[in-house]
Automatic annotation (TrEMBL):
Keywords: Amino-acid transport, ATP-binding, Nucleotide-binding, Transport. PANTHER family: HIGH-AFFINITY BRANCHED-CHAIN AMINO ACID TRANSPORT ATP-BINDING PROTEIN LIVF (PTHR43820:SF4). The keyword ATP-binding applies. This is ABC transporter ATP-binding protein. It comes from Actinoplanes palleronii. InterPro entries: AAA+_ATPase, ABC_branched_ATPase_LivF/BraG, ABC_transporter-like_ATP-bd, ABC_transporter-like_CS, BCAA_Transport_ATP-bd_LivF, P-loop_NTPase. Belongs to the ABC transporter superfamily. The lineage of its organism: Bacteria, Bacillati, Actinomycetota, Actinomycetes, Micromonosporales. It comes from the Bacteria. The keyword Nucleotide-binding applies.
Length: 236
């Protein structure tokens, strides 16, 4: 397994946000984590990327225990996150934002290679290469956030709500690009409120409710599960 969470518990002060969750992500997979607002999805992502300390349990990545490893060192190991809310650097150009994603790397030729890859995946970013990140539309900023995460050449790409606030046409486009990124060899863990889009593309998925995993299965199994349909897909 590329990623393994074992009995992960996380606290915000006295509030328990995660209650002993366990999940796995195999190399080459797209795994989706779905659930309502406040279920603990983003908290799980922050725990994996090292932005929140865990109270109990362990995080194994590529066979190594990274539970107590600093966030920047996790990026070096191959874990990269595109955060909820995008978090682009507003005063920096598109190119400068992308270069920031490669801050742990030194090989200029490989960095240029990955810039080309990002511009191929997102032609709009190439067109806006010199434009300030903060002046772009929401969809363009989302592309920039994903592109920046790819610039560290991750083994595991963490995507937190990539479709949030986007127009339906752009949502479709973002998900198609996620599949393409995966087909190019990057493993993806996807947190998403748009359960229909996430489950239709995920190899496997987990349902999170109030900090607990309540269901797991293939994307297709959960897509056709009556309880999941009722709770997350707006159909009985």
């Amino acid at each position: 397994m590329l990623l393994e969470l074992k009995d992960l518990t996380l606290l915000y002060g006295r509030i328990q946000a995660l209650h002993g969750i366990s999940l796995t992500v195999g190399e080459g997979e797209i795994v989706a984590l779905i659930g309502a607002n406040g279920a603990g999805k983003s908290t799980t992502m922050r725990a994996i990327s090292g932005l929140r300390a865990v109270a109990q349990g362990s995080i194994l990545f590529d066979g190594e225990d990274i539970t107590k490893l600093r966030a920047d060192l996790r990026v070096v190991r191959g874990v990269s996150q595109s955060p909820e809310g995008r978090g682009v650097f507003p005063g920096m150009s598109v190119r400068e934002n992308l270069e920031m994603g490669a801050y742990t790397r030194r090989n200029r030729a490989e960095i240029d290679e990955d810039l080309d890859r990002v511009f191929t995946l997102f032609p709009r970013l190439k067109e806006r290469e010199k434009q300030a990140g903060g002046t772009m539309s929401g969809g363009e900023q989302q592309m920039l956030a994903v592109g920046r995460a790819l610039m560290s050449r991750p083994k595991l790409l963490l995507l937190d709500e990539p479709s949030m606030g986007l127009a339906p046409m752009l949502i479709q486009q973002i998900f198609d690009i996620i599949v393409e990124i995966n087909q190019q060899g990057t493993t993806v863990l996807l947190v998403e409120q748009n359960a229909q889009q996430a489950l239709s593309r995920a190899h496997r998925a987990y349902v999170l409710e109030t900090g607990r995993i309540v269901k797991e299965g293939t994307g297709q199994e959960l897509l056709h599960d009556p309880a999941v349909k009722d709770a997350y897909l707006g159909v009985a």
